[in-house]
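ugh ok fine here u go
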Amino acid sequence: MTYVIRPIALCAGTRDQSQWTYRWNIGRKGPSACYIWYLEGSDPITIVDAGAQGEHFTNPEFPMTPLISLEEGLQKYGLTPGDVKQVIVTHLHFDHIALSRKYINAAFIVQRKELMFAKNPHVFLSVDYNPEYFSGLNYRLLDGDQEVMPGVKVLLTPGHSPGGQSVEVSVRGGKAIITGFCAQMSTFIQTPAMKAWGMEVAAAGLHIDCREVYESALKVKQTADIIVPLHDPMFMEMERIG
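structure:
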């Protein structure tokens, strides 16, 4: 079973590039986008992440400009939020779950340890978890790597959050992996400076454990034929992956 991944960019903004490459690119600014990912060909109809709109980014230092509404994004593929039956949630930070209430007929597939942490986060991380968005959803809880439907598998990739999960999707070009941690393609490109340090990938700058998030990025790079970083702006201009 193979699918086509349809990136749907809902909002965009500018971020410090060190968010994707811990200790590197500090002070360099660049574009970032927030997506949902429709798995075309899925039955039941499945997307990755619930998404967020510009108004959900309340920190004035990190604004995001709305691009299209969720309804407009799904309409391009003949869908409404009510048609979606499964949402595979990479992690429960607000920008990946804020629009959850719109999917009135969906089950939400998430790692058990991610939900447990989200309910009682460390105070330093509580800004990322808003119970208004994730409480009381219809959950399907997982523990580790698991196939969730033919041709779609989740991989436990912690470090950015305790239970981040990447989503491996069989596409025409092989295994495409949507990362379960906030990254751009720069996370996975080994620069000469990184090579000199013995680093094959970068660690995501936003993390709870830099060792874990490094190992998660390495796991994705070693497994994927196509890497799909969650916030890379290149998918804003891309109609399909696979």
